[in-house]
From TrEMBL, chain A:
InterPro entries: ABC_transp_permease, BCAA_transport_permease. This is Branched-chain amino acid ABC transporter permease. PANTHER family: AMINO ACID ABC TRANSPORTER PERMEASE PROTEIN (PTHR11795:SF445), BRANCHED-CHAIN AMINO ACID TRANSPORT SYSTEM PERMEASE PROTEIN LIVH (PTHR11795). Belongs to the binding-protein-dependent transport system permease family. LivHM subfamily. The lineage of its organism: Bacteria, Bacillati, Actinomycetota, Actinomycetes, Micrococcales. It is found in: Cell membrane. It is a multi-pass membrane protein. It comes from Naasia lichenicola. Its main location: membrane.
From TrEMBL, chain B:
The keyword Transport applies. This is ABC transporter ATP-binding protein. The keyword Nucleotide-binding applies. It comes from the Bacteria. GO terms for molecular function: ATP binding; ATP hydrolysis activity; branched-chain amino acid transmembrane transporter activity. It holds the Pfam family ABC_tran. SMART domains: AAA. It comes from Naasia lichenicola. Belongs to the ABC transporter superfamily. InterPro entries: AAA+_ATPase, ABC_transporter-like_ATP-bd, BCAA_Transport_ATP-bd_LivF, P-loop_NTPase. Residues 2-231 form the ABC transporter domain. The lineage of its organism: Bacteria, Bacillati, Actinomycetota, Actinomycetes, Micrococcales. GO terms for biological process: L-amino acid transport. Keywords: Amino-acid transport, ATP-binding, Nucleotide-binding, Transport.
Length: 289, 232
């Protein structure tokens, strides 16, 4: 029964990882940009929420109403004024610049908010759980995060398949030059995609801050989990990313049930197995869906 | 309406077109002809904004658009059907046409009227653009450009890589497009095909204008097309 429990907890954990990974997957799919500062921005959002919570006015969930729009605007601005300049035939400038951004964010946080571990507190909701037969308990918060991740990915995938913006996103992923010929500005499409990605990573950062603790240096681990979810699921596919995130979550929780101290390592090992035997990921599709 | 004067453009150090001047009247048609590498596609790319002009100016509806970006020119009504069609392969034909709605221009061309003009495209609307044949792709590319309601439609080598019968069918559509008041500037290697739709031709040779005018003599065109020494 402990394995069943571990699998269920892993699926829920996958919801959190999917939120981390969706933004990374979207930005790569749209503008072929690998954002190495993705995790650092999640941490930045968590500290933003912490700052708001400490004023005493709002709880972490309500703080999202401020943090998510703020991060979305930041995403748009960072894309338009920094990342846009790094786009080109070579992926290297974008990698270097986003790596630099992550270092700047981490060190600025170290200077201003210290290296102490922090948590975001939700009070009784933190520990609330739903009891299932067989002694399995599902945390209310992880379940809420998982459901939220599903809803957000469904919405995003609906936007991509049905709206004019979604068509433009897919078209620009095929051929930005020709999108311009049709009267749309790829820079604007990229900007909005970055806004969506940053909004998502803000939710992920805050949710992770409630579920576990965080410090200025947590970003790199978030980034690795997001990467692993994207690669396991298959590059450029949103539902693949969700699937990859769940696989990673299960690997970690089942791993923890077998060898409690090696949870993260076992997650990495499963990722390496996928990379070795299924390098295209579970979905193996190139186009954004 | 579209006035180009003294236009030059280069790929890096290599000048591809030099000092080109031409005019397309509102609702009119002009065919630019020339051999491979004469600079025809470069000329269209420069007019559409994909390539920066090194000298000269592009005036459109009385305004200088030389410094505008490609999408801004499309929004003003200068729309290019690029060489090699450049459809969005992962999108359906219908979605490809919808992309051009982003030019936000109103006019006679709508999804309905374009489908009416190209029944073949309408038939294929649910197919992925990447799965179409060359002729279907070319028709879709022209249809997509029309959705943007161009004031002037720039057509780059419609006939490239297509069977003569298909090319004939596509060229048969051009008078119907002109009838709706859409001007056309087309480039073509096939002189006979170009002359069939346009009385006025502009011949390029190694990036320069070698001949331009209406109802020209075929022998003169041949000389301008191949260079002075060649005989046609």
């Amino acid at each position: 029964m402990s394995i069943v429990n571990a699998v269920i907890q892993g699926i829920l954990l996958g919801g959190l990882y999917a939120l981390f990974a969706a933004g990374l997957s979207l930005m790569f799919g749209v503008m072929r940009l690998v954002n190495l500062a993705h995790g650092a921005f999640a941490v930045l959002a968590a500290y933003g929420a912490l700052l708001i919570v400490r004023t005493g006015a709002l709880n972490p969930i309500a703080a999202l109403l401020i943090i998510v729009p703020a991060m979305a605007v930041l995403g748009f601005v960072v894309q338009r004024f920094i990342l846009q300049r790094t786009l080109g035939t070579s992926p290297l400038p974008a990698l270097l610049v986003t790596f630099g951004l992550s270092i700047i964010i981490e060190n600025t946080l170290l200077l201003t908010v210290t290296a102490d571990q922090q948590r975001l507190n939700l009070g009784s909701f933190d520990t609330a759980a739903i009891a299932l037969p067989g002694g399995i308990r599902i945390g209310a918060f992880p379940l809420a995060v998982f459901v939220f991740a599903l809803v957000v990915l469904a919405l995003l995938s609906l936007v991509l398949s049905r709206t004019q913006y979604g068509r433009l996103v897919r078209a620009v992923s095929d051929d930005p030059g020709t999108v311009q010929l049709n009267g749309a500005d790829p820079k604007l499409i990229y900007g909005f995609a970055a806004a969506i990605a940053f909004g998502l990573v803000a939710v992920a950062g805050v949710a992770s801050g409630v579920q576990t603790s965080f410090s200025p240096s947590s970003g790199s681990l978030f980034l690795i989990f997001a990467f692993e979810a994207v690669i396991i699921g298959g590059l450029g596919s949103l539902w693949g990313t969700m699937l990859g995130a769940v696989v990673l979550g299960i690997a970690q929780t089942v791993g923890a049930a077998i060898a409690p101290a090696q949870q993260i390592l076992i997650g990495h090992l499963v990722f390496l197995v996928f990379l070795a035997f299924l390098p295209g990921g579970i979905t193996r599709q190139k186009a954004l869906r | 309406m579209l006035e180009i004067s003294g236009l030059s453009a280069a790929y890096g150090q290599l000048t591809a077109i030099r000092d080109i001047s031409l005019t397309v009247e509102s609702g009119g048609i002009l065919a630019v002809i020339g051999a491979n590498g004469a600079g025809k596609s470069t000329l269209l790319k420069t007019i559409a904004g994909q390539l920066k002009a090194t000298t000269g100016s592009i005036r459109f509806d009385g305004a200088d658009v030389t410094a505008l970006s490609t999408h801004e020119r499309a929004r003003r009504g200068i729309v290019l059907v690029p060489e090699g069609r450049r459809l969005f392969g992962s999108l359906t034909v219908h979605e490809n046409l919808q992309i051009a709605l982003s030019a936000k221009r109103s006019g006679v061309w709508s999804l309905e009227s374009v489908y009416e003009l190209f029944p073949l495209v309408a038939e294929r609307r649910r197919r992925r653009a990447g799965d179409l044949s060359g002729g279907e792709q070319q028709a879709t590319a022209i249809a997509r450009a029309l959705i943007a309601n161009p004031a002037v439609l720039l057509l780059d080598e419609v006939s490239l890589g297509l069977a003569p019968a298909i090319v004939g069918q596509l060229y048969d559509r051009l008078p119907l497009i002109l009838e709706q008041g859409t001007a056309i500037l087309l480039v073509e290697q096939d002189v006979a095909q170009a002359r069939r739709v346009s009385d006025e031709v502009h011949c390029l040779l190694q990036g320069r204008t070698s001949l331009a005018g209406k109802d020209l003599d075929l022998a003169d065109i041949s000389r301008a097309y191949f260079g002075a020494e060649a005989t046609a």
